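Risk register update: the risk of archive-format incompatibility is retired. Evidence:
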Amino acid sequence: MSPEAAERSRHLAGFLHDRRPAWLDRFIVLDECGSTQDEAFAAASGAPGLVVTSLRQRQGRGRPGKTWSQRDDLGLAVTFVLDRAAHEAAWLPLRAACAVCHACERLVDQWSPTIPEVSPLLRIKWPNDVMVAPTACSRHGASRKLAGILVEGRDNLLLLGIGINIHQGESDWPEPLRTTAVSMAQICKERPQASLVLDGLIEALDRVLFESEPEVLRQFAARDIVTGTRRAIEHDNRRFEGVVERLDPRGFIRVRLDNGEVVSLPTAASTLVSGSPQS
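Archived output:
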């Protein structure tokens, strides 16, 4: 184990000793792995309560067809193993996105951001992205992605994977991501510590995972950046383009098409495919 991984392990052990939530009872810190999702499933041996984090991730993945880059200990890659009987899978991406927003905003405030004051600073792009508000990314005039979420069900377990960009600078991003991704370091005066981000994430999850559905929906609505914008959505091998009039993450997304027709598509079986939104 590298000194960096050993330090994260010591920090996490101390944190869980003092403030361990009831749903989390053990952890693994890795220097490198293919995917924290796969490592967590293998190491859990069918029992929930495990968290796995890795400094580097070679084959991180997002929703189907997407990848999540994690190299040189620049971000946080973590998977929480949850009891499938205790959590509704359809709600997990929404709850996790709210938790990421709470955890990261608290640390941004703590490090005195160099960006203009924006409320809320972090927004949720259905179905699984956490974005920094456009006014905080004024150089590009659009929201930029800070974090991604992946939920996978395997046997009696739910694997909640979260990736957060922390230390990347402008030169660390591959060319295609330089105008679409952002890190906490880019919106803070000081370099945030990944261990403190993970602490805050666990604390926020401990609250949000068990909040009422109306409260979670209220939090989502305050951060939703999809409703009211023009988007392209795929469902059943068809593409629907128009303005999103209503978005219920648990049920349907209602879209007014360019021809005036209004369609309701099931969110669980639909995918957001458009690039930059238009109002």
